[in-house]
Structure formats: structure tokens, C-alpha cells
Amino acid sequence: MLKKRLRKRKTTVYALGQYISMSAHKARRVIDQIRGRSYEETLMILELMPYRACYPIFKLVYSAAANASYNMNSNESNLVISKAEVSEATIVKKLKPRARGRSFAIKRPTCHINIVVKDISLDEYIEIDSLNPLKWSKKLKSKKKYTAMAYNNIYSNGGVWDKK
């Protein structure tokens, strides 16, 4: 009797940007907006956001999608940003000359940005048990979630005020 070993197909690809000259806090502000979104929606968000951190993150997302299309032959419409991380890197220290022969330390923070892209079309939802085909139908059923939209008047119940 032959045993077949099933290998799970790789569904994630990443792009890593190291020593990007910007603080990790400013990059996290942008990364939090794109985490979990689709590739096409992410590109639109990054083009329209007014932050300086958007351009290097845009390049990394584009690079991760190029890696996915080259390595896994995946379509860009099936890609989702599954994981996006920002970690602090080394701080570049410079000395600036000041008055009376003194020096002033300038600290330029850098960060590492890691973006993981997942192809949802390659995701394996079904584990096929060839001995028991009755299990197939249970795993194929999807649970539908319905959400109701509720209208709340923000002026009558003390909601969020417009900050200027």
C-alpha cells in the first residue's frame, strides 16, 4: 500500500524594506490603514494618503505583488495584505556644529517594513478524505453573516464632533 504525502502549496509571499529613513511610529500610522485589505484597494489608499511614509510602503506593496506574480503565478486581483509589520532599526547619529565650538547631536531614526501578501485563490479550504466522502459536503458549506446598517444621528445623541 502506497502512502502519498501531500505538500501544502505556499500561498504567501513577502517584501522586506530595511533601513528606511523614517521613524517606525510614522510608518505604523500608514501600515495600520492597509493591513487586511486587498491589493488594489491598498494601492488606491496609499496614493491618496498625504503622508511621506506612503511612498516607500507603496513600493514595498508593489514589490510583494510582483514577487507573488513571479513566484506563484497569481493574479493581482486575488492578493490580500495578510501581514504588515514595522520594526525599529538603528538610529543614525550625526553631529551638527553649533555656536562657540559646541556640537549638537542629530538622531535620524530608521525602520524595517515587512509586508506579507497572501493569494486567497490558492487557499485550501477543503481537506479531502478519500475514505469518507460524507465529510466533503460539511466542509463546503459556508456560513453567511448578515450585518444590519443602523442610522444614528450624531447631533442628537452626543456623537463625534468635527475637530478643527
TrEMBL record:
GO terms for biological process: translation. GO terms for molecular function: rRNA binding; structural constituent of ribosome. The gene is rpl22. Keywords: Chloroplast, Plastid, Ribonucleoprotein, Ribosomal protein, RNA-binding, rRNA-binding. Part of the 50S ribosomal subunit. The keyword ATP-binding does not apply. This protein binds specifically to 23S rRNA. It is found in: Plastid, Chloroplast. Belongs to the universal ribosomal protein uL22 family. Coiled coil: none annotated. This is Large ribosomal subunit protein uL22c. GO terms for cellular component: chloroplast; large ribosomal subunit.
